[in-house]
Design a protein that fits this description.
Structural class: mainly alpha
CATH superfamily of one domain: Tetratricopeptide repeat domain
Low-confidence stretches: none
Number of strands: 0
CATH class of one domain: Mainly Alpha
CATH architecture of one domain: Alpha Horseshoe
Number of helices: 19
Helix content: over 70%
C-alpha cells in the first residue's frame, strides 16, 4: 500500500487522498486501515477527527457497531462542543436505536434535535426523527418532525431532502395530491436527486389511475408499501397481493413486482419468480412490460442461474417489443448470458 511514502515525507494530504480513493472504489477494509493510520500518525492535524468519523462510518457500514461506537465516543470526548462532536453524538444515537424502546429512541432523538446548536446536525436529526416516527406508525409526529426540518433547511439540496421524504410520507398516508406536489418540488430542486426516479415512477403510476377501481388499487398498493417500510411483511404481502391480483388495474404490475421483491428477500425464490413473471404479464404499457421482463430475466440469471430461460425472456422482450428505450440494455444482457 502507498502509506509508507506519504508518511516518510509527512505528507498527510497524500495519505488522506489515498483513503478517499480507496473508499470511493468500494475498498472499505483498505480505506478503513488508511483512515486509522491517518488518525494515528498525524495527531497535530485538526482534520484528524474527520478520519475518525470516516472510520466510525465504515465500521457501521460493515457491521462493527461496537468499533464504530468507540470511534464516535472518542470523537465526542476529544472534540467537546464542536460540530464534529455533535455529529458523533448523533452517530451514537443511531447505533443505540435497536437497543432502546421506540419511545425511548424517538424521545432522545427529539431532545437532541431540538437542543443542538448546529443547524445541519439538527436537520439530520429531524429527518431521522421523521423517518423513525413513520416506521412506528406515528404519522402526525412524523409530519411535525418534517416541519421542524424545513425550518432548519437552507439551499436547494437540503430542501430537496425534505421534499423527497415528505413525498414518501404523503404516499404512505394517502394524500397523493400533496405527494405529487412534493415530487414536483424535488424535480425542480435537484433534477439529479438520488430518489427522484423512484418518486417520479410513483407519481406517474398515480396519474395513470383514471378509474375509481384504479385509484382504490393505488391506495391498497400504498398501504402495502407503507407496511413494507415498517417491516410488517405479512401485512405488506396481504395488501400487495390484493392490488396485484386485480389484473385489470394499472397498479397490478407494480404490486406484483413489490411482492416478488419481498419473496426474494425472504429466500422464497419460487414465489419470487412467479410474481416477477406476473408483473410482466400484468403491465399495461410497453415500457413497463419490457422493464418487468428484464427484471424477471435478471432474477433468472443471477438468483436461479437459469441463463437459458433468462436468454429466452430477453429475446422475447427485444423481438416482441422492438425499439424501446431498453433495447441497448437488453442486447448487453444477452451478450452477458451468452458468454456464460
Amino acid at each position: 500500500m502507498l502509506i509508507g511514502p506519504a508518511v516518510a515525507t509527512q505528507n498527510a494530504q497524500d495519505v488522506w487522498n489515498l483513503a478517499e480513493l480507496l473508499y470511493d472504489d468500494g475498498l472499505l477494509e483498505e480505506a478503513l486501515h488508511v483512515y486509522e493510520e491517518f488518525y494515528r500518525l498525524f495527531p497535530k492535524i485538526t482534520a484528524r477527527v474527520k478520519a475518525l468519523m470516516k472510520s466510525a462510518s465504515i465500521k457501521t457500514e460493515t457491521g462493527d457497531r461496537e468499533g464504530a461506537r468507540q470511534d464516535y465516543l472518542r470523537a465526542v470526548n476529544d472534540n467537546e462542543g464542536t460540530e464534529e462532536a455533535a455529529v458523533a453524538t448523533l452517530g451514537i444515537l443511531k447505533l443505540s436505536r435497536d437497543e432502546m424502546s421506540e419511545d425511548g429512541f424517538t424521545g432522545a432523538l427529539g431532545k437532541f434535535a431540538s437542543t443542538s446548536i448546529f443547524r445541519t446536525v439538527a436537520l439530520d436529526a429531524y429527518l431521522l426523527l421523521a423517518e423513525s416516527y413513520m416506521a412506528i406508525g406515528k404519522p402526525d409526529e412524523a409530519q411535525q418532525a418534517l416541519t421542524d426540518a424545513r425550518i432548519k433547511a437552507r439551499g436547494k439540496k437540503e430542501a430537496y431532502r425534505i421534499a423527497a421524504q415528505s413525498a414518501l410520507f404523503h404516499f404512505f398516508t394517502g394524500d397523493h395530491e400533496q405527494m405529487a406536489q412534493e415530487i414536483q418540488a424535488c424535480a425542480s430542486l435537484d433534477p439529479q436527486g438520488q430518489e427522484l426516479n423512484d418518486l417520479l415512477a410513483l407519481k406517474m403510476l398515480g396519474l395513470r389511475c383514471s378509474t375509481d377501481e384504479d385509484r382504490a388499487g393505488y391506495s391498497t398498493f400504498a398501504r402495502g408499501k407503507y407496511a413494507l417500510f415498517r417491516r410488517l411483511y405479512g401485512e405488506a404481502a396481504d395488501s400487495l397481493t390484493v392490488a396485484a391480483n386485480d389484473t385489470s388495474s394499472v397498479v397490478a404490475s407494480a404490486a406484483a413486482g413489490a411482492l416478488a421483491d419481498i419473496y426474494r428477500e425472504n429466500g422464497d425464490m419460487k414465489n419470487a419468480l412467479t410474481w416477477y413473471l406476473q408483473a410482466a404479464s400484468a403491465a399495461k404499457d410497453t415500457t413497463e412490460r419490457v422493464g418487468a421482463m428484464i427484471e424477471a430475466g435478471d432474477f433468472l440469471a443471477t438468483e436461479l442461474n437459469d441463463t437459458e430461460s433468462a436468454k429466452s425472456l430477453y429475446l422475447d422482450a427485444m423481438t416482441s417489443y422492438p425499439g424501446t428505450v431498453y433495447e441497448s440494455i437488453i442486447r448487453r444482457k444477452l451478450r452477458l448470458v451468452v458468454e456464460k
